[in-house]
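Let us practice reading a record.
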Amino acid sequence: MRSAEEIIDRLKGSFNAPRTKDEKIKVVVFCIIISTTFWFFSALNKSDYVTQINYPIEFQYNEEVFVAVDPLPRNVRLEVSGGGWDLMTRSFGFGMEPILIRLDDPTQAGFKLASSLRGEITPKLDPVAVNFILSDSILYHIERRVTRSIPLAYDSASILLEGDFRLTSAVSLSPAAIQFTGPESLVNALPDPYIIPAAEDAVDESVEESFDIPLPESDLIVNDLSETVIKFEVDEFVSYQRSIPVMKLNFTDSTLALSPAAVDVSYSIKRSEEVMADSLDIMLIADFYSYNAQDSTVNVSVAVKATHIQDLVILEEKIKVTRNE
């Protein structure tokens, strides 16, 4: 193996009388590297450097009771002075044990004065000297972890129904409530009840199926379920229009008559109950106590209506009272 002197002499010879252009370039590059290295190590030996570094910090609190809403600070900024080698190792984080900030109740203050950490940081950085702590305060946002049960509700007002179909039952959900756990402010801001949006497709039959529960965007909130079974009934309604006789009430004069004696009504019946449709299921009356002498009319009202008849409308609510000759 050649000695260092022989290698240097060979390089000098190559540089002074290079055999090829490539060989000369290699020698120049090598010399630059050597000189840079010597300069770098020489510079690190100096002891009067001033720079800024980040010193690591770590928060300690009961994470079962409290939760950080925002990412916690991980370091504090310092201005330090010292030798090149020491500052270089500190800049890369070597030999810097994190300062532990213990919080018994982190919801109280929300900040800690950075200057209060100087007494702990200084001995850990020795022989590097701490000139200034550049951060004024260390801010944190930690809240109490809470659990809240919220009833679920289906947005029945937004259900799309096909044609003449209608909702004929209450909407039931199983499970009927969801439980959220997370930071107090975020959990308390959740709506009550917790709405599940209706499906976008039109409905033409009764529904009993699982629906996904839209969950909060925050990763800090956890929940105990992700879907619930929605159940409700729908039925198609058929429209009718019929003429119904009007019965007289409190007419003491037998010569008085109604004109017309029957009026048209419109109503709806479920398709499933269509066989029950009968004009006898509706009874209309004209009460003489509602007689209006100015236009000789009485009001027509419903006296009897079967439960399966819906949307009943009297198309002629006033009729004339006439006298038989």
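A brief commentary: Residues 21-44 form the longest helix (24 residues).
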